[in-house]
Amino acid sequence: MRQWLATHARTVTEPAWRPDLWGRRILFWTAYAPYILDTRDGEYRKEVLNALARGARHLDTAADTAPQGLPRVMAWAGVIAAGLLFPGGDPRTAHGEAGMTRALALAVHADGGLISRAPIEQLALVELLAQLRGVYEVRARPPGGAVALALAQAVPVLASATLGDGGLSSWQGGGPASATRVAAALAAVNFRGGARDDARDWGYQKLVCGETQLIMDAAPPPAAALSRGACASTLAFEMSDEGHRLVVNCGGGAGLAPDLAKGLRTTAAHSTLVLAETNSTAIHPDGSMGRGVTEVALIRAETPDARRIEAAHDGYVKRFGFSHRRRLSLAADGRSLEGEDKLTPEGRKKTAPSTPLALWFHLAPGIETVLTTDGQGALLRPDEGTGWQFRTRAGTLALEDSIWIDGAGRPRPSKALVVTLEAPDTGATIPWSFRRVR
Questions:
Q1: Strand ranges (DSSP E) for 155-251?
Q2: Where are the beta strands (DSSP E) in 28-122?
Q3: Nearest of 132, 53, 49 to residue 89 by alpha carbon
């Protein structure tokens, strides 16, 4: 505390005075005030309290300058906390609640999912709002209407982004936050179940059958203004069995080498189809997202035997004249997943007689994988849990090196099953399946 105060308390510099960081700082400094103010040093205590006051005044005018989305919500949370906890704060509280209402309207879809579409940020949103709710409780006041509604909607969406091990699924530049952290956030808000598995605005669809869980990206990437860390992952999926991950995306996280972070955003770093080694949505050299997927058609269906998702995107239509449709059918007992990827001619006529495609299935680390002698399948033996068999009836199957970013942000070596073929101008259909080995 003394070092921070000496360096930053009287000088407004970036990033120390970034509005989102000041919002978090006010929440944490006040939460831990019994520790950081546990001293008889009156000058030090005065310095801490003065810094908090200066930070709050800074946020009064700077909160709306934070980037749209979670950063702006964080900034306004600091304004509200300061209003609730500092003397004479009622006008500031009202100002903060009005700003928070605006920020949440721009940050959260109607179904409760963040516009960044990153589960790791959805977790941070729930943690933030739960902490802010705690400040209201200290003052024996009900949370502002926008805060209460956003928290109530955000929690079921967060629960739907977890796999069988309790950790987050890896999407939009975020890694698999630990089951412990997710459970702590859900416990803090007294979550009693009721995950929202069909959040169409947020864009992730979840199937749960038996001990098998599957999450699919069924939406375009985030809007261009929010896409610096976004991924070209449309129609990719992750799957777990009995609490163990089986099919994954490569993931992402903070602190990775720039070249690696860029590669992890590509379509090929996700368990989906890649056409002509091209991303389904372009990623520009400056990190922004370009043209590609603008619309995803989606159908969910359930029968006594299976639950099914069928989705299609237009990301390859203008460039290659194909739409990509994926069908996933998970058996009711969770013991098999039947899949089909289909390229259908659409839009302008292609000039090339054929187009190469690759169908990627990234596997979680620790899965021993052996290709079958007929070249059309593979046996998967996890370190723990039940084995699975993969089969395909089209193309050439190969086992490639891959990578997975774990919950601590560390790259771990893994493997990927890759089906390749040349798609004629009339299109192509690739059926495949995962079946649990009895």
A1: 198-199, 204-209, 212-217, 237-241, 244-248
A2: none
A3: 53
Nearest one of 136, 133, 117 to 70, comparing CA atoms: 117
Question: Would the pTM count as exceeding 0.90?
Answer: yes
Residue 61's Cβ-count burial label (10 Å; 0-12, 13-18, 19+) is: exposed
**Under a CB-based contact definition with an 8 Å cutoff, are residues 175 and 252 in contact?**
yes
Model confidence pLDDT, tens digit, residues 217-272: 999 999 765 656 899 999 999 999 989 999 999 999 888 999 999 999 999 999 99
Burial class (CB in 10 A: 0-12, 13-18, 19+), 217: buried
Q: Which residue has tokens 């300058």? A: 65
d(CA 178, CA 168): 7
pLDDT at 226: 65
Place of tokens 């390859």: 316
Count other C-beta atoms under 10 Å from residue 143's C-beta: 20
For tokens 């299976």, what's the residue? 306
Q: Using CA atoms, how far apart are residues 280 and 59, in angstroms rounded to an integer? A: 40
Contact residues for 372 (Cβ-Cβ < 8 A; gap 6+): 378, 379
